[in-house]
Amino acid sequence: MTEIFGFNPVWEALQSHSTVRKVVMTEEEKERLKQIRDLAEKRRIPVETISREEFRKAFGGKKQWVMALVEEPFAKLEDFVSRLSPDPASLVLVLDQIQDPQNLGSILRTAEACGVQGVAISLHRTAPFSPAVYRSSAGAALHLNLYQVPSLGSFFRLLKERGFWIAGTDSHRGEDIFKAKVNFPLAVVLGSEGWGVRPLILKRCDFLLKLPMFGKVNSLNVSVACGAVLYELRRRQRELGLI
After folding, report:
1. What is the pTM of this model?
2. Taking a C-beta distance cutoff of 8 angstroms, is the pair 166, 91 a contact?
3. Is the pLDDT of residue 29 over 80?
């Protein structure tokens, strides 16, 4: 179970398929709090009302005076894979050891905005699903098809059985994404902030891509790179008439 805070994350939790166990808010009846209360009651989710002082003592700060207790949104493997269509318009995102919660949340927000069919997240050496992840994703994490992957090698085999190509991202050996031939449907692998996708994982990819650098720096923050890669792929799919 995870505590999430703030108007937008709690609102998105209540509108998503997530299991929300309880909502806690303060007595002050701001319009946004009223909307959250009404939606929670409509879904028959318990709402606890406490004072601001009690909220501070329980949760350590203001946090827009609202909290929801939710179950982690990870699907079982069979459910995750069953939602992946081999249609050429499909995109899947695979995250290999993303350790910063702000980056993880930002990536999930971008993934949802780009309409990816699923996000697979490596189980080990990855940021836990904390309030910071939900906050930086602006609640988008609660709308995604998510799976925690114990073994990326085995997972790649399942993706290929579903008809997906695997594209790793590598700033050294990858081909310029603006020039490369790209096959669809596609699963894109992004790596950790410090060292990128692990070499063993890169060897299992069908091809490698990179974003060209036009300035003096040689890399981008992983969440920024995620946005650039996904939107270029969506642009390519639109150009091909796939979306």
Report:
1. 0.89
2. no
3. no
